[in-house]
Design goal:
Elements lengths: L7 E6 L2 E6 L2 E7 L46 H12 L11 E7 L5 E7 L6 E2 L4 E2 L4 E7 L6 E6 L3
Length: 158
């Protein structure tokens, strides 16, 4: 289902696992597998070598994941319901977006340089005119609201 989001919660309490969707309990089951704490957590899609023919340990996920929370204790049914209500009615809210970044250019005095930008790390285009380094460090504020950009600095050899 396109453009449909679900609030999904898994709660493990001892050997009991409860799954919730949109604040409502979907299933509750005892688990017999011993859970081991690892230094990494995988969220989303895991494809091991050989997938799909030789890898039963893979689990591709179709869709997106947004806003992941981990708690140090099991949430109660009431807490899961309240969390869903809070997330379903997010007003007021705020978003954070970077509009400008500051580049720090470390230069050799007296050399002519060219700042370049790319959207894909494959095609580079000049970002502004070439300039002569009159300071060893130059700061350049760049508007990045048009999308992700990568930057590099090059010496121009006359």
């Amino acid at each position: 289902m396109d453009n449909i989001w679900f609030h999904l919660v898994a709660v493990r309490s001892g050997t009991n696992l409860s799954l919730f969707r949109n604040g409502s309990l979907v299933t509750n089951s005892a688990i017999s597998v011993a859970l081991i704490n690892y230094s990494e957590i995988w969220l989303g899609r895991h494809l091991c070598p050989g997938w799909p023919t030789t890898c039963p340990g893979s689990y591709p996920v179709l869709g997106g994941i947004d806003d992941v929370r981990l708690y140090s204790r099991a949430l109660s049914r009431q807490e899961v319901r309240l969390l869903h209500q809070f997330e379903a009615n997010p007003l007021p809210f705020l978003t954070i977006a970077l509009k400008t970044i500051r580049l720090s250019l470390f230069l050799e005095l007296g050399k002519t340089n060219q700042l370049e930008s790319s959207t894909n790390l494959g095609i580079w285009t000049p970002y502004g005119p070439p300039f002569l380094a009159t300071n060893s460090v130059v700061y350049q504020d760049v508007d990045i609201s048009e999308g992700p950009q990568f930057f590099r600095i090059k010496w121009l050899i006359p």
